[in-house]
Each structure stands twice: as structure tokens, then as C-alpha cells.
Amino acid sequence: MPNVLITGANRGLGLEFARQYSADGWNVIATVRDSSPELDELEVRIEQLDMRDLDAVEGFGERIDELDLLIANAGTYGPKSVTTEEDARGWSETFAVNTIAPFLLAQSVLAKVAASRGKLIAISTRMGSIAENTSGGFIAYRSSKSALNSAWRSLAIDSRDQGVIAAMLHPGWVQTRMGGPSAPIEPPESVAAMRQVIEGLGPDQSGGFFSYDGSEIVW
Ligand SMILES: NC(=O)c1ccc[n+]([C@@H]2O[C@H](COP(=O)([O-])OP(=O)(O)OC[C@H]3O[C@@H](n4cnc5c(N)ncnc54)[C@H](OP(=O)(O)O)[C@@H]3O)[C@@H](O)[C@H]2O)c1
To answer: Which helix (H) or strand (E) is 169 found in, with range?
Structure first.
């Protein structure tokens, strides 16, 4: 059975990824800061990982034997605006969680993903598209995800020779704690669609930024 590593799997999209891959018979390694009753119900391996702990993230690969798929899903919104020193510290933490930690984790598991000619997926957001930003605001969140896209694009290019496929996905606007109750899509629909996109990714799509419906998003 293939192996998938999912970060931020206690709730929201990460929990739904864990649910669907596990139901399909995959071996799921689910990372959390704290587990949840919903995750505890699943037959998955749960590992503690706070994405702000960059030492633990960097060494995480040693805790895994084989890996076919990484879903770097854990993410945070950060401060809504950046006007105070405290906001600035929040922006910095948002970068650690949304940008630096996913990249470090991908590097840490790269040899194992390469051994299975597997895939590295970053859950990004359309809000990280600079070209599509016509409404402004959300400095910390937007900039951290734009930078994630930039790093992941290089990762795709740098790992191409090892047979690895890397891509960034936008899940849609989804009903989670982050997406809020007005979001038009529920997690099962978004995750099922993203899984289909992931399944269909080949070397020609590596380095791309896609919406959950498979359409490409401009940088
Ligand atoms: N929902 C949407 O509409 C939407 C749209 C575009 C992109 N996204 C992206 O989708 C991903 C999942 O978000 P979601 O909608 O499922 O939101 P969510 O319900 O708020 O879940 C966020 C997840 O990230 C984890 N997380 C946050 N900070 C962390 C840290 N320091 N270390 C480890 N885990 C941490 C949370 O764990 P805790 O419970 O421990 O905080 C939680 O599991 C995010 O990357 C987000 O940017 C979502």
C-alpha cells in the first residue's frame, strides 16, 4: 500500500485528506500539534509535529521509512494587518509555518519520495497569486503563500532529475475553521477533487499551481 504524510491532520482539510486516503487503503501518517477525536477514530499513524519547531521539522524524515506522497497542508492565516511590532512577529511566525516549514519538511523526506518516484504537494491558496491580487490586504497570509509557491517551484525543478513531481494546489473556498461557515464548498468535495488532480499529475505538470478543479492559476 502507498504511504502518505499529511500535516495539520487534526481538523479541516488535513483531517479530510487523512479520512479519504485511509478509506482508500493508503498508510496514512498524520501530523498534528494535538490530535482530535475525529482523527483518533481513523486507522492512521499519528505523529506530533508543530510546524514552528523547525528542528523537529528538519529531522522529521528520519521518523519515516517509505513515502509516496507528502501533503503539506498545515497553514495559518496570521495577523489580518501588519501595523504593530506584535503583528510583525505574527507575520514572521506565519512565514515559518506556511513557507519555511513545508519546504524543510519536503527536503527532509525528499530521498524517500524520490525512491518511490512520488509527489510533493503544497496546499497553497489563490490568495498567494500576485497577478490575481486586486483587493489588497492579508499581507502575512498572501506573502507567505506567494513565497511558498516560489520555493515549491524551485523544489520541483531541483528534484526533477530524481523523478519527483511537485505541485501547489488551491483547495477552493472551503468550510473549515479558516474558510468559515459561508464558504460554498465542504471539505469532502474539495479533497476528493484535489486527490483527482494529484493522481493526474505527471512530469509535465511538475512545478505548476492548480486549483482543485485542475485549472492552472497564474502566479
Ligand atoms: N479553507 C479554505 O477556504 C482554504 C482556502 C485556501 C487555502 N487553504 C489552505 O488549506 C490548508 C488547510 O486549511 P484549513 O482550511 O483546513 O484550515 P483549518 O481548519 O484552520 O486547519 C489548519 C490546520 O493547520 C494546522 N496548523 C496551524 N498552525 C500549525 C502549526 N504551527 N503546526 C502544526 N500545524 C499547524 C492546524 O492545527 P491546530 O489545530 O493545531 O491549529 C490545522 O490542523 C491551509 O494551508 C490553508 O492555507 C484553505
So the answer is: strand 165-170
What are the boundaries of each domain within the chain? 3-211
- pLDDT tens, position by position, 24-34: 999 999 999 99
Considering only CA atoms, which of 16, 7, 3, 9 is closest in space to residue 171? 16
Is residue 73 within 6 Å of ligand 1 at its C-beta?
yes
CB 165 within 8 A of CB 156: yes
pTM of the model: 0.98
Q: Cβ(177) to ligand 1 under 6 A?
A: yes
* Distant-in-sequence, close-in-space partners of 69: CB < 8 Å, separation ≥ 6: 2, 3, 4, 5, 113, 118, 119, 121, 198
CA contacts within 13 A on the Cβ side of 13: 30
- Cα 155 to the chain's mean position, in Å? 14
- Per residue in 84-108, pLDDT (tens digit) is 999 999 999 999 999 999 999 999 9
- 74 in contact with ligand 1, CB cutoff 6 A: yes
Length of the chain counted residue by residue: 219
The DSSP bridge partners found for residue 70 are 5, 120
Contacts of 80 (CB under 8 A, 6+ apart): 137, 138
CATH 3.30.1340.10 for the 3-211 domain, yes or no: no
Cell of 8: 495539520
